[in-house]
């Protein structure tokens, strides 16, 4: 290993890629120019100068059946990644989110070279499902950096040190220019706008796309709305057919990642596939309706064995302990229900205003002290120096 510390950062999907990029920036700011980086990630990490060593294509997987179908691909990527990590023997490896993939990488590295320090960044949500994962993770890594203030109580009894760093998603709070966005795209100041977010995984777009598109069609036929679609990240190409159909049929405004914040600010209501983006929308105070579908086999297992423990699927609802964001899951992902929920919000400006304030209040409490990437970087540097 070289004299300068080498930090190996691993992210397998879009949200982890953004976390990795923020961590790399903070590590450079706090650790100086001598820190070297290597890793696996996407466009955001690449923009920070960390080229991916192993392709992340096809690794954004959710659900049992999807995992089975991708098993060979996952196994191959894990082997490649483990070999590269062991060869370069970094000062620390930061494994971001993506429970199943990162667990296999951690176990592979530990089996070959247990001296390499392994740090998990974002743990599985054991408060919601499968509490046994806490013990499994404790045996696989040296430290957990969590984005949830209450995670420690689930992991520390198993001997895993935990540092709450906060959620970097909540630190990205720069307000967008809603008026400027409307003016640029020819949307009247008093026009009703619905922001539509189809998901960050191909499987999510495949499952949710038809229902979200039909929901927009119903809304457009009942109200004079302007749909806004954000087509960003590695799934932009996969989303393109829906976005183009909506542009031609409904006059939808389609934008990329660079206009996402402004689109948030221009939206009256959002309709979103459940995920990190729901927390982002809450941080911006956008009243949101969300939905989610798993593969039917995975859903059947969850139902049969009562695996899901949390009363909500959205973190903002869990934090508030109430349904601030209306949720529609699996069999309730129906255009008739989704369109009614969105229409009810559009028809009640006072309710939207009050809800916007509650969403921002809740995410402010979730944020804690802020500067999550900086606290994550401090934790990594401390662990590296203690080694």
3D structure, described in words:
The chain folds into two domains: 6-166 and 368-386, Rossmann fold (3-Layer(aba) Sandwich); 178-367, Rossmann fold (3-Layer(aba) Sandwich). The protein is of the alpha/beta class. It has helices spanning 14-31, 43-47, 64-69, 71-88, 99-112, 133-140, 152-155, 168-171, 178-184, 202-222, 236-250, 260-266, 276-283, 296-304, 315-320, 335-346, 349-367, 372-386, and strands at 6-11, 36-40, 92-96, 117-121, 143-146, 162-164, 192-197, 225-230, 253-255, 269-273, 288-292, 327-329. A six-stranded parallel sheet has the order 2-1-3-4-5-6, with helices on both faces. α5 links the parallel β3 (92-96) and β4 (117-121). It is 51% helix and 14% strand.
Rounded average pLDDT: 89
Give the strand order, joined by hyphens, for the main sheet: 2-1-3-4-5-6
Write down the overall geometry: globular
Order of H and E elements: EHEHHHEHEHEHEHHEHEHEHEHEHHEHHH
Straight-line distance between termini:
14 Å
Individual helix count:
18
What assembly state would you assign to the polypeptide chains in this entry? single chain
Beta-strand content: 5-15%
The CATH C-level name of the largest domain is Alpha Beta
CATH superfamily (homologous) name of the largest domain: Glycogen Phosphorylase B
């Amino acid at each position: 290993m070289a004299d300068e510390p080498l930090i190996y950062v691993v992210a397998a999907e879009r949200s982890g890629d953004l976390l990795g990029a923020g961590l790399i920036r903070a590590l450079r700011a706090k650790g100086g120019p001598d820190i070297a980086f290597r890793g696996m990630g996407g466009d955001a990490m690449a923009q920070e100068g960390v080229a991916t060593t192993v392709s992340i294509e096809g690794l954004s997987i959710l659900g049992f059946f999807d995992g089975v179908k991708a098993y060979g691909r996952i196994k191959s990527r894990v082997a490649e990644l483990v070999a590269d990590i062991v060869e370069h023997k970094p000062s620390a490896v930061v494994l971001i989110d993506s429970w199943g993939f990162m667990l296999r990488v951690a176990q592979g590295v530990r089996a070959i070279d247990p001296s390499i320090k392994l740090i998990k960044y974002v743990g599985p949500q054991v408060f919601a499902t499968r509490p046994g994962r806490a013990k499994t993770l404790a045996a696989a890594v040296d430290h957990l950096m969590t984005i949830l203030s209450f995670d420690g109580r689930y992991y520390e009894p198993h001997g895993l040190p935990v540092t709450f760093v906060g959620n970097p998603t909540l630190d990205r709070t720069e307000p967008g220019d809603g008026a400027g966005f409307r003016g640029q795209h020819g949307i009247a100041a008093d026009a009703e706008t619905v922001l539509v977010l189809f998901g960050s995984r191909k499987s999510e777009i495949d499952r949710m796309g038809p229902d979200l598109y039909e929901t927009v069609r119903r809304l457009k036929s009942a109200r004079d709305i302007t749909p806004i679609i954000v087509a960003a990240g590695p799934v932009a190409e996969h989303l393109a057919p829906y976005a183009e159909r909506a542009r031609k049929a409904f006059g939808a405004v389609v934008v990329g990642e660079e206009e996402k914040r402004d689109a948030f600010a221009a939206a009256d209501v959002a309709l979103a596939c459940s995920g990190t983006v729901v927390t982002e929308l809450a941080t911006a105070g956008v009243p949101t309706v969300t939905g989610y579908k798993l593969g039917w086999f995975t859903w059947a297992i969850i139902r049969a064995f009562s695996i899901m423990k949390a009363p909500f699927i959205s973190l903002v609802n869990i934090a508030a302990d109430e349904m601030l964001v209306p949720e529609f899951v699996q069999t309730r992902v129906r255009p008739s229900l989704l369109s009614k929920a969105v229409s009810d919000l559009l028809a009640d400006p006072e309710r939207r205003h009050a809800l916007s304030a509650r969403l921002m209040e809740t995410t402010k409490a979730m944020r804690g002290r802020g500067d999550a990437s900086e606290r994550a970087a401090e934790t990594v540097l401390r662990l590296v120096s203690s080694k």
